Amino acid sequence: MNAHPLYKLITDKTLFEVIAKRFGSPTYIYSKERIENNLRSLNHSLSSYFKRYNICYALKANSNPHLVKVMKGILPSLSADCSSPGEIFVAEQSGINLQNCIFTGNYESEGDLKSALRAGIHINLDDITSFHRLKSIGLPAEISFRLNPGFGKGKFAEITTAGEKAKFGIPKEDIISAYRLARESGVKEFGLQCMAGSGVLDENYFPKLLSAILDSAREIETTLKIRFNHISIGGGFGIPYHEDESPLNIDTVFSELSKVFYSYYEPSGAPAFWIEPGKYIMGDAGILLAKVIGIKHSYKKYIGLDAGMETLMRPALYKAYHRIYKIGDPDAPIQITADFTGSICENTDRLAYDRPFPKVSEGDLIAIMDTGAYGFSMAHNFNTRPRPAEVLLDGDNPVLIRKRETIEEIFLNCNI
């Protein structure tokens, strides 16, 4: 069984009772220690195998500026992967140098492209039509395009972002045309990007993907006589959500990727190797604290929490699995099987289905694990429920980094 890195933390019932009393429930809690561990291991492996590299944290995973500032403090060279003007704003507010960041939208509006152009960020375009929209506004010195290599891989079909069914990227058969258009339009500098899927735990997949990217890179460079400044493999580095899954050996992953990369390029003249991780840095550093509100015995058993699909969207969106523990006694004997649900008037409002679990009572605190990425960032106001608070745990000191939203704040922009 895979022991969760924050397992020891949830045995401390008193700590979570203090957090619940001070900040309420539900609340997202993040471990600074775990964030630091993830960032340092990632950077250490990259620096061991690549001469030039850039870590662009994927802000879509969790864009709380306080957390991004913490990451920047841990790794001063940290850059950002932005997919919207809002994420560009967060990167800038967090002290990240935008000139080292990447903007990758899709079906980008004129406003999106203007924001990216003004920011001086590396612009990575999803389609040839995106280039035409950008050209009508203005052209930067450098452009990259997002490659769809014809295949992808993800934990779920919904987060597989390349292949024939993906809405993202330029098919490999058309990628040369995109770069030719950019070159003929006066662009002088180029990068290449590919993001093929999220949540991958298969270490053999990443070298296969990079080989496909570099095959296209070589064809583009040879045909058009250009040279890439950087090549990004995107993100996709998964974390184990299930007990029986093993974590990636990230050192092995980058060791193998470097062998592929430097078989195509001489180390002295190679492009910089870029990655765009989000989940790998933040995913297992987050816990969603929730409270048991009611226990219902119907055609099946339900454990009703004060957190539902409006708090954590992933299970409703693609039936994602999250480990759930009883805080203070995670090893308590299994006595029931129940669905975990919230208070939302949708039958998809489930955080777990048919989950074996210890006996619980109203008022018990529950830990929903691996919610640091795509937890709060997907939280919403359905049923007009305010979004939860966010807390950073620095050692045993909980610090509020986003106050709980109020009902009144939901309607601040309404003319009432």
Q: How would you summarize the topology of this molecule?
A:
Layout lengths: L12 H11 L3 E5 H18 L3 E6 L6 H10 L4 E4 L2 H9 L8 E3 L5 H10 L2 E4 L2 H10 L4 E7 L21 E2 L3 H10 L4 E5 L11 H20 L3 E5 L17 H15 L7 E4 L3 H4 L3 E12 L3 E5 L8 H5 L5 E3 L7 E8 L8 E9 L6 E5 L19 E6 L2 E6 L4 H4 L6
Parallel strand pairs: 1-17, 2-3, 2-10, 3-4, 4-5, 5-6, 6-7, 6-8, 8-9, 9-10, 12-14
Antiparallel strand pairs: 1-11, 11-12, 11-16, 13-16, 14-15, 17-18
Mean pLDDT: 94
Number of H/I helices: 12
Classify the secondary structure makeup into a structural class: alpha/beta
Q: What is the rounded Rg?
A: 22 Å
CATH class of the largest domain: Alpha Beta
As for the number of domains, it is 2
Query: What ranges have pLDDT less than 50 throughout 5 or more consecutive residues?
Result: none
CATH topology of the largest domain: TIM Barrel
Coarse shape: globular
What does the model show?
With 416 residues, the protein is an alpha/beta fold. The chain folds into two domains: 9-29 and 283-410, Lyase, Ornithine Decarboxylase, Chain A, domain 1 (Beta Barrel), CATH 2.40.37; 32-280, Alanine racemase (TIM Barrel). Helices cover 30% and strands 24% of the residues. It has twelve helices and 18 strands. The protein has helices spanning 13-23, 32-49, 65-74, 85-93, 110-119, 128-137, 175-184, 205-224, 250-264, 279-282, 314-318, 407-410, and strands spanning 27-31, 53-58, 79-82, 102-104, 122-125, 142-148, 170-171, 189-193, 228-232, 272-275, 286-297, 301-305, 324-326, 334-341, 350-358, 365-369, 389-394, 397-402. Strands 1, 11, 12, 13, 14, 15, 16, 17 and 18 form a nine-stranded mixed β-sheet that branches. Strand 3, helix 4 (85-93) and strand 4 form a beta-alpha-beta unit. Helix 2 (32-49) runs parallel beside helix 9 and helix 7 crosses helix 8 (205-224). It is globular, with a radius of gyration of 22 Å.
